[in-house]
Amino acid sequence: MSVNFCPQCGNSLQSAAIDGRSRQHCNAANCGYVHWDNPVPVVAAIVELDGAVILARNRGWPEKMYGLITGFLERGETPDAAVLREVREELGLDVATARFIGYYPFFEMNQLLLAFHVPAHGPITLGEELADIKRVPIERLKPWTIGTGPAVRDWLASRRSAV
User: Fold this and answer.
1) Which of 14, 90, 92, 106 could bond to 111 as cystine, CB 3.0-4.6 Å?
2) CATH of the domain spanning 40-162, picked from 3.80.10.10, 3.30.230.10, 3.90.79.10, 3.20.20.370
3) Can you give the pLDDT at residue 118?
4) What average pLDDT score do residues 138-142 get?
5) Global pTM value
């Protein structure tokens, strides 16, 4: 994320070597703000419904692009509560449990993905962020290489080893 102005005092930020890396910082007297550009935590849900995984297309995505249900944590929210909230908001499903799969760095988006398996039941009602969903039978689900794809890969592998 590119930041040009200090959120504390409004002065222009400058590049400087801080802790061995080039970082944006404010050199105004009595400020000292540093933009650390830390990764943003994002929850991802592999929603399993009636033997299929629900993939969703965000309203802003290209027509053929589908992915897992994802979302940002709210202040004071745990990752497992966040993933249940996201499934409720985006699919209208009232789910009770989420099993942690793992964490996955998504360097391209400066995010840390926290992936969960979320078993669900009931009818889907699309939230305002989604344009469409598709149900992919678990046996036909194929992981992709970036973003949430490695979580799908690991979840599928854990299912095979549990049999």
Assistant:
1) 106
2) 3.90.79.10
3) 98
4) 97
5) 0.87
